[in-house]
From TrEMBL:
Membrane topology reported for the UniProt record: Multi-pass membrane protein
Source organism per UniProt: Oryza barthii
Descriptive protein name: Ammonium transporter AmtB-like domain-containing protein
Compartmental location: Membrane
Keyword Nucleotide-binding: no
């Protein structure tokens, strides 16, 4: 449904993906064949030189990561039964729509929207859906709203950062020139965002914080995701600064809201993803766009006001979904992609030739920014609606939220084990209204 033959403008035809005959054939995304308005082939369908089994695994990993990000917004209170019902429904009805529309050959793909590695498809979608799910499930118990283990957090952040190299570098489906640019830009933006967040902590709180550094790392990685192989290094630096500023502000401003987004997924992923997507419409370099996009002539706003302005609008629409770390950062990254996308890199990656960021042409770049904005709006709106409908349906059959007794006992009630066990003193827990009794003495 996400990468098959067209069924609707936003979804492909369902087909088996695990049959041996299919997995051993050469990978092919048939709907990515892009034709000019008069029928001539502009860019051929994506056909990487490896078997379909590799493509299935690679794209499965992206969908799995997206579901994991959604989970970060409802940790510690959504019931296991509700979650098990939600995941397949959301993956089928929500994730596949964004993936096909932007990556698999849907209407946003052929329109020339830039999302190099998932600022919209992964981070904007996860940020918006996670925040929506947090609204329906409800907040955590007040006494459990604090942080966890800093050492484990830093270790996890390091693993995440290392994995992002393959996340962005593997998206061209080969170890080529564009993938090298994507990897380098990924680390430039992340390190810049970390430094910017630390400086903000010092300016506001008087001292740096480890949590702030990790948040800066995540927002930087998310923001560069839609633009990784489409912008130059100096644009990645600017996006790193921007990816700290807006998500940090939205995260602090959201403290008064009643929705309990456990890991700040809205800010670090949604907002950053939108920002990155829109900035892609500004900075996308024409050469890089022609290397990657199906629509020739794409470019960021700075490379042509007319074409770039349209691209920026495309990016913004595809970005306005993730809330703080992923939503805000995802939006930010999408918009900035429309600003900074380099023409050469765009031609290497995009199906629409001639794409570029805003700074490479006000006319062409302005069009790209408009595309980015439009895409963000579509992804955000679809995920809010789909997530809400799915959760309302699931709620009719099973409770979305764990009982108060289960919340009080925690992991020991649900799984019969604990993440952090005090082996020396043991644990005793008895719950009223339930027959849950745990003894470990």
């Amino acid at each position: 449904m996400a990468f098959g033959r067209r069924l609707l403008p936003f979804v492909g035809r369902p087909a088996p993906a695990l049959a041996q005959d299919y997995m051993l054939t050469q990978a092919l995304l048939p709907s990515t064949l892009h034709l000019r308005s008069y029928g001539e082939v502009e860019t051929a369908a994506v056909a990487p030189l490896y078997p379909s089994a590799s493509m299935v695994f690679f794209q499965w990993a992206f969908s799995g990561v997206t579901v994991g990000l959604v989970a970060g917004a409802v940790l510690g209170r959504m019931s296991v039964k509700a979650w098990m019902a939600f995941v397949p429904l959301w993956t089928t009805l929500s994730y596949t729509v964004g993936a096909y529309s932007i990556w698999g050959g849907g209407f946003l793909f052929h329109w020339g929207v830039m999302d190099y590695s998932g600022g919209y498809v992964v981070h904007l979608a996860a940020g918006v859906s996670g925040y929506t799910a947090a609204y329906w499930v409800g907040p955590r118990r007040k006494e459990e709203a604090g942080g966890g283990n800093l050492v484990v957090m830093v270790a996890g952040a390091g693993i995440l950062w290392m994995g992002w190299t393959g996340f962005n570098g593997g998206d061209p489906f080969s170890a080529n020139t564009d993938s090298s640019v994507a990897v380098l830009n990924t680390h430039i933006c992340a390190t810049t965002s970390i430094l910017a967040w630390i400086c903000c902590d010092v300016a506001v709180r008087g001292r740096p914080s480890v949590v702030g550094a990790v948040q800066g790392m995540i927002t930087g990685l998310v923001c560069i995701t839609p633009a990784a192989g489409l912008v130059q290094g100096w644009a990645a630096l600017l996006m790193g600064v921007a990816s700290e500023t807006l998500p940090c502000y939205t995260m602090n401003a959201a403290m008064s809201l009643k929705v309990d987004d456990t890991l700040g997924i809205l800010h670090t992923h949604a907002v950053s993803g939108v920002l990155g997507g829109v900035l892609t419409g500004v900075f996308a370099h024409p050469t890089l766009c022609d290397m990657f996009l199906p629509v020739t002539g794409s470019r960021g706003l700075i490379y042509g006001v007319r074409a770039g302005g349209v691209q920026v609008l495309k990016q913004v629409a595809a970005t306005l979904g993730i809330l703080h770390t992923h939503a805000v950062s995802g939006v930010l990254g999408g918009v900035l992609t429309g600003v900074f996308a380099h023409p050469t890199l765009c031609d290497m990656f995009l199906p629409v030739t001639g794409s570029r960021g805003l700074i490479y042409g006000v006319r062409a770049g302005g069009v790209q920014v408009l595309k980015q904005v439009a895409a963000a709006l579509f992804v955000a709106a679809w995920n809010v609606a789909a997530t809400s409908i799915i959760l309302v349906v699931v709620r009719a059959f099973v409770p979305l939220r764990m009982t108060e007794e289960e919340l009080l006992a925690g992991d020991i009630a649900i799984h019969g084990e604990q993440a952090y066990t005090n082996f020396s003193s043991g644990t005793n827990c008895s719950l009223s209204h339930e027959t849950i009794e745990v003894g470990n003495s």
